């Protein structure tokens, strides 16, 4: 598999990724949207009415603030990649809830957010999914049984035994790969995390690997990597 990937820092809170392999092209932008909003201050673009309605549903002020910043930041990042204004970015939803760009239907889109970080991925029309997770302490053993098949869970436990210092990092890589593929199916978690089979042995060795994941007759090319303590994966359908 020939790979051309370029991950370069644009400014202190934003990174741009471009991966081209065969006929698959992935563009993704990762941004610390909370820091981005703080830097802009009053110059931040206005929030839309429908975005404000989503924010208003959150009781926790910190979570509401992070969501508000992320919603606006995502539109700005998409606009930058498409060469349009942020107020021209319009979303629609499929019957399953997957986002699409209403006024740029030839481009596919996926957005993910975690702990003040926002990841936006754009494709060339093929189904795409993105997931970002800020690494944090959690009971990964309890979660493993919910997201992995028995063989996959057994392989991960063996990896954890041999690479204990890398276990949490490997789990977040596994998690983001599965969520990215599930988003690319258009069904999200309803498609079932256990149905996404990930080669566990490659979770530690390669820092920015490209993988092929097969699910329900479709092959997905998946890029996964890290930006500090932030795990991110982007999946795009190949056929």
UniProtKB/TrEMBL annotation:
Native source species: Hyphomonas oceanitis SCH89
Domain 4'-phosphopantetheinyl transferase, chain residue ranges per copy: 127-198
Listed name of the protein: 4'-phosphopantetheinyl transferase sfp
Lineage, broadest ranks: Bacteria, Pseudomonadati, Pseudomonadota, Alphaproteobacteria, Hyphomonadales
Protein keywords: Transferase
One Gene Ontology term, aspect cellular component: cytosol
Keyword Transferase listed: yes
Any one GO BP annotation for this protein: lysine biosynthetic process via aminoadipic acid
InterPro entries given in the database record: 4-PPantetheinyl_Trfase_dom (IPR008278), 4-PPantetheinyl_Trfase_dom_sf (IPR037143), P-Pant_transferase_sf (IPR050559)
Recorded family membership: Belongs to the P-Pant transferase superfamily. Gsp/Sfp/HetI/AcpT family.
A GO molecular function held by the record: holo-[acyl-carrier-protein] synthase activity
Record has Repressor as a keyword: no
